[in-house]
Please model this.
Amino acid sequence: MQQKTCDPAANGQNGKAVFGDTFKNQLSVTPKSFTVLNPTTCRCCPIPTCEPSVLIADEPTTALDVTIQAQILDLMRELKQRTGAAIVLITHDLGVVAEMAQRVVVMYAGRKVEEAPVAALFARPRHPYTRGLLDSIPTLGAVSKRGVMTRLTEIAGTVPSLAEPIVGCAFAPRCAYATARCQNEYPPLEEKVPGHHAACWESERMLAEAVA
Ligand code: SF4
Model:
């Protein structure tokens, strides 16, 4: 796919040249057009030739300060409203997910491990990896039930190499709920409750322990 940069002059804009090749936080659209954000003014050139059905925003707010992040998110909402396009947002920022998404897919080691409406996912995650991601969000002044300042939770270990075949659940070496079955059988993605899917043999046990 050949990527193009919008030309503000060609589109009747008075703005300065967009960052184009040098600015990586971009919204990719269809093979026929490419929309580039100008982080200086946070305004987007009009989509010149088409009305895309899907916008793919790959880490659009990474490494930006919160003011620019907010502008980028506003811009995405505006594009969605103007074009009617669906947005596929790829991000590690769960705050952005909570603010922007309707439906969330959690990926681990190249596979979908959980999928749910955003509110259900944040309220009752059904996969230990999702649970770990949510627990690792920093909270100001977080204290335990005994009133002691708590350490930030981390997911121990590292992501497995995909160069070798993975037997069993890819998350097992890092999972506090892993059993012998997890080491040998890959858990299929199953609908645990209507609209909420997870790939985990111990999903119910994890949920039970979370509320205990
Ligand atoms: S299948 Fe087992 S190892 Fe994998 S996430 Fe669930 S409990 Fe953990």
